[in-house]
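Researcher: Sequence of MBL fold metallo-hydrolase follows. Predict its structure.
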Amino acid sequence: MLRYHTIPVTPFQQNCSLLWCDRTQEAVLIDPGGDLGALRAAVQQRKLKLVALWLTHAHIDHAGGAGQLAREEGLPIIGPHQGDQFWIDGMPQQSQMFGFPPAEHFTPARWLEDGDTLTLGESQVGVRHCPGHTPGHVVFHAAEIKRCFVGDVLFAGSIGRTDFPGGNHQQLLDSIRTRLWPMGDDTVFIPGHGPESNFGEERRFNPYVRGT
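Model: Prediction complete. Tokens:
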């Protein structure tokens, strides 16, 4: 069975998620944007074996710590979709623009595509490509625990910004409707910022996507 713990990091309070298999104790960090000391402490406290870093997209608050952590711990970076290559290439500029510590450049060990499956311990996690916030944004669907790690696609009561380079509002709405909603109303999602919610709640009450 998969378990997870959310750790807000960076001045943007980005939700980095520690996800692990409780049978093998193998773990990944989803979107290690920064505050690496806190992330390492969370792993060590639970006596987990960190095996990879997974990225939903390549904005600085989600990916800024990935290069350094991967280098220091000898870990592969998995994701996002190759559509975010230009965001990775511009990581140093992102650091300067938003006042973050200098971010190391990195090359993912594996780009992700819609429909891919990732293995963590004895569990499988599905990948859906959900462009709109960024062209290469993906989400991680842990169906066995009815959880989805959605990055900045969807929030409790809101949706991701689409005014950054490569953003597309209609594409984001289409991603939510065609990729997220079919996971089921009872699926709880962990957004990139703010509290958890579930897809059913957002379909009913989120002013940006209700009724879709």
